[in-house]
Amino acid sequence: MKVVFIGAGNLATHLSRALQQAGEQIVQVYSRTMTSASELATLLNVPYTTNLDEIITDADVYFYAVSDDALESLVQLPLASNAIHVHTAGSVSMDVFIGKKSNYGVFYPLQTFSKTKQVDFKTIPLFIEASSPEVEAELFKIAHKVSEQVYRTNSEQRLKLHVSAVFASNFVNHLYQIASDVVKSANLPFEVLKPLILETAEKVMFLSPEQAQTGPAKRNDQGVINKHLETLDEHPALKKLYQDLSNMILNQYFHQS
Question: Is the pTM of this model over 0.85?
Answer without folding.
Answer: yes
